[in-house]
Amino acid sequence: MRPRSLDEVVGQRHLLGPGTPLRRLVESDAPMSLFLWGPPGTGKTTLAYVVAGVTKRRFVEISAVSAGVKDVRAAIDHARRELGLTGRQTVLFVDEVHRFNKAQQDALLPAVENRWVTFIGATTENPYFSVISPLLSRSLLLTLEPLADADIQVVIERALEDERGLAGRARLAPEALDHLVRLAGGDARRSLTYLEAAALLADEITVEVVERAADKAAVRYDRQGDQHYDVVSAFIKSMRGSDADAALHYLARMIEAGEDPRFIARRVVIFASEDVGMADPTCLQTAVAAAQAVQLIGLPEAGINLAHAVIHCATAPKSNAVVKAIGAATADVRRGLIGQVPGHLRDAHYPGAAGLGHGEGYKYPHDFEHGLVRQDYAPAEVRERRYYQPTRHGAEAPVAERWAKIRSFLRGE
Fold it and tell me: What is the pLDDT of residues 318-372, one digit of tens each?
């Protein structure tokens, strides 16, 4: 089912549309050097095959997992001879190119520099960290994106009908199609593997057949319906109730059902301030780090980072003082309790500010003992309002004691 032309390639529209660099390079039949960077199953090898096929060049594939410098040089020497004798160019495709060490990557430089081959390197790792700069600077870097659910569906439906696939010999129930799309996780190769396995078991492919073929139960989960909201609600409430086991169950359920990991990460980050807050300030750091890991790594590995954050959130002491504080302050502002900023706190840096009395009488806290000085900070309308009312849970207990002393000093109580 490998595409034979650029128009047959599913997804990656940002790389394949009219006027894009890759399409111009292919259509002009110009020598080129490319790095294709993206997750597994997004079409890196496919694009290399298509480039070779469309431009009618020899295709030579090397796996960086098993090849050495000798193999690289042999492939390049063969390509040079072919170019000199027949004028035919060669596409040298190096899969997992990030696994090559510096010496192996250096061996590619003369071929890239002199255009003896059309070099295409595929990598799932960030090339800026794994590829030597001389090689990277001489190549075009193209980033492939995970395939959307709609793209995976096109791949599956095409394989059902195409002569190169099942040629109509099997029928796929709509629910089974949805399950295959979820199982694929944006990986076209995986979707075809599961479809082929299911077709070997039955001509009528149901959810049960897919479950047997993939050895993976279908998770009943509608990302747009009640199940989505019910599971997310149970997830949050399990963390709030400090049940790490239950929270991990719902986390696994969402991941296995194909929920967007960025959505899960956002909910954990919110929870860290809303339900843990100052009772364990490091919880927010863990949650934000997990959210960054989701962006940097992606699933399935990022599931470990999410689990790390979920366990931290679930087992941390709880406090909703932060969310109550900002809620109370916001409610007062919306009720019109705003008032004027005290004159001594106003910006005094611009010309003419001093003439307006801005900043006059301001006391710089660092000039006083303990870094505290009694002066009015809030507008008169809300000066006696108490927004932050800390609990005595976890790390918030000493904060509560300190805040009580500070507030008493500042208000002269």
Answer: 999 999 999 999 998 888 888 888 888 777 777 776 777 787 888 889 988 888 8
Percent of the chain with pLDDT over 90: 38
User: Does the domain formed by 246-315 have CATH 3.40.50.1970?
Assistant: no
112 vs 198: CA distance, rounded Å: 43
Letter for the amino acid at 329?
A
Query: Which of the pair, 251 or 230, is modelled with greater confidence?
Result: 251
Could you tell me which CATH number the domain at 324-411 has? 1.10.3710.10
Per-domain residue ranges of the chain: 6-143, 149-214, 246-315, 324-411
Fold of 6-143: Rossmann fold (3.40.50)
State whether residue 352 is helix, strand or coil. Answer: coil
The rounded distance, in Å, linking the Cα atoms of 264 and 255 is 9
**Tens digit of each residue's pLDDT (9 = 90 or more) over 64-103:** 888 888 989 999 999 999 888 988 889 899 999 988 999 8
Closest CA to 115 of 89, 84, 95: 89
Determine how many CB atoms are found less than 10 A away from the CB of residue 372.
13
Q: What distance in Å separates the CA atoms of residue 24 and residue 41, rounded to the nearest whole number?
A: 24
Q: Pick the closest to residue 42 from 186, 239, 156 (CA basis).
A: 186
Q: Are 317 and 279 in contact (CB under 8 A)?
A: yes
CB-CB neighbours of 44 under 10 Å: 25
Number of Cβ within 10 Å of residue 51's Cβ equals 22
Model pTM score: 0.52
- 23 vs 9, 11, 141, CA distance in Å? 12, 14, 14
246-315 and 324-411 share one CATH topology? no
Q: Residue 117: exposed, middle, or buried by beta-carbon count in 10 A (0-12, 13-18, 19+)?
A: buried
Between CA 319 and CA 325 the distance in angstroms is 11
> Please, is 240 exposed, middle or buried when counting C-beta atoms within 10 Å of its C-beta (0-12, 13-18, 19+)?
middle
* Residue 227, pLDDT score: 63
Looking at the domain that runs over 149-214, which CATH code has it been given?
1.10.8.60
Give the separation between CA 260 and CA 112, rounded to whole angstroms.
39
Which neighbouring-strand residues pair with 95?
63
Question: Two tokens at 143?
Answer: 């980033």
Q: Give Cα separations from 313 to 265, 305, 318 (angstroms).
A: 12, 12, 9
Q: Which pLDDT tens digit goes with each residue over 21-61?
A: 778 777 776 678 889 998 887 888 888 888 888 888 889 99
